[in-house]
Design a protein that fits this description.
Helix content: over 70%
Shape: globular
Oligomer: single chain
Number of strands: 4
Largest sheet: 2 strands, antiparallel
Structural class: mainly alpha
Radius of gyration: 17 Å
Distance between the termini: 43 Å
Strand order of the largest sheet: 1-2
Length: 216
Amino acid sequence: MLNIDVVVITIIVINVVVSLKGFKDFSFFERYKFNIGGVRRGEQIRMVSSGFLHVDEMHLFFNMFTLYFFAPVVLQYLGNIKFLVVYFCSLIVGSLFSFFFHKDEYHYSAVGASGAVSGILFSSILFKPDMSLYLMFIPIPIPAYVFGIGYLFYTIYGMKKRAGNIGHDAHFGGAVGGYVTTLLLAPWLFEENLLMVGLLAIPIIILFVLQKKGKL
């Protein structure tokens, strides 16, 4: 367990240090947050650096708690290096989704590790689709694959309605990044969990169909 925790703790520490710096230093926060105008000016570092900044302590805690809970599953199957590949691919794909869906909104900004964490969450669901999840206010266990599918459909709804001050597109993009990267790194999942691979693909396909038809 110690070896498993080292990578996760390192990522958490980096997130905490960078986020605390951002809480206290407005210019630092503004320089490294995701911002459409900044990215279009050539500041691509924002696509990654924004994933280590957070709005407040609660935002930071929720993301890091979720990461710590699901990361051991991915580490168990992929090991340290491939885990990091999934994490950073998910972060970047989440940022790419944000850029794609807001490319003409020059003032659009976002921060948070949610894209990367969503990718780790969906990677863990691919490996253990039957593990039980417990959510606040819901006293019964929910199968991970049911939660994953529901989460993606809710995210599509949030993208359509622009519900709340939440980067739904980054969440969805991160989940897609984690899903695709995991399947590339562990193609045996197509044989062992083909049904779950297909079920999790349904909301992803629906999103692209809606986008193609201009309904997002």
